[in-house]
Amino acid sequence: MKITVLGCGAIGQIWLAALARQGHEVQGWLRVPQPYCSVNVIDYQGKVSNHTFIANDPLFLADSQLLLVTLKAPQVSPAVRNLQSVLSDDCPVLLLHNGMGTLDELKGLSQPLLRGITTHAAMRDGTVIKHVASGITHIGPANRKSAAWSDLADILHAALPDVAWHDNIGAACWRKLAVNCVINPLTVEHDCQNGALRAWPQQIDLLCQELSWVMEREGQHITADSLRDIVYNVIETTAANTSSMLQDVRAQRLTEIDYITGFLLRRARAQGIALPENTRLYELVKRKESHYDREHASTG
Ligand code: KPL
């Protein structure tokens, strides 16, 4: 398959390396156009992949049979809108990011639109991407044109397992959103790795309670207790991780808070529910962003 990967950060690079290894023809697409992108990945077994792929080639883009979008949520819809007129109308666009809200921004896209979430963990260490933990990628349809694309899960699974297809991807997205609403801003508040959050059980309880009220109204029936179990499970399995939001804050980058807690608060407002603990954490992260040293702040 001919595949363009939009966004060549940590997750983008592990997909580029894995898809190329599987024999797919790939290119990277960078926000600052460049003819090539280099991929340096060390996987969790210590295997190194060094490649140089072509990048930002509009002819390759026009022929692509998949646009895999691995940008952070705030960058997704402007970047996809920018490329949509070059893509063929039947090229599926798969969004792989934390948070929710981009589907509303991309309403009316003429291409088949798919949504995915992943539990693969990768982080940059200097010029190298460390694929620190293998995981599962859940994908599913996000508009009417994409319902027939379930075969994509098998193709992607062969390159970077596991990949699972869900006819109702919304349920998986809401659960991941809930996990991110708890872990990400709390790690920013306490400036700690995920595992250290075990020390703040009352805050975790409050956040899960508030999340369960909103999710119930959204048709995602889940109790606060079950949500808490899911969150503690992720805290254990990612105990040594620095959350993506804390990494962003430490590097003075724009976080995904508007698409994580911000999305939750917009849904809560529409339902007339107040979420004091989530609101407090939202404001805390926004305050941090507003205090970035202007010279260093970036969206990257
Ligand atoms: O998705 C994550 C993130 O850091 O964004 C979690 C699950 C919290 C793992 O670190």
UniProtKB/TrEMBL annotation:
GO MF annotations for this entry? 2-dehydropantoate 2-reductase activity; NADP binding
Q: Which GO terms describe its biological process?
A: pantothenate biosynthetic process
Where this protein primarily resides, as one coarse class? cytoplasm
List, alphabetically, the Pfam families matched: ApbA (PF02558), ApbA_C (PF08546)
What pathway is it annotated to? Cofactor biosynthesis; (R)-pantothenate biosynthesis; (R)-pantoate from 3-methyl-2-oxobutanoate: step 2/2
What compartments host this protein? Cytoplasm
Q: Does the keyword NADP apply?
A: yes
Quote the cellular component terms of the Gene Ontology held in the record.
cytoplasm
EC numbers listed for it are 1.1.1.169
Domain (Ketopantoate reductase C-terminal) ranges: 169-289
Q: What UniProt keywords apply to this chain's record, in alphabetical order? A: Cytoplasm, NADP, Oxidoreductase, Pantothenate biosynthesis
Q: Which family does it belong to?
A: Belongs to the ketopantoate reductase family.
What protein is this chain from?
A: 2-dehydropantoate 2-reductase
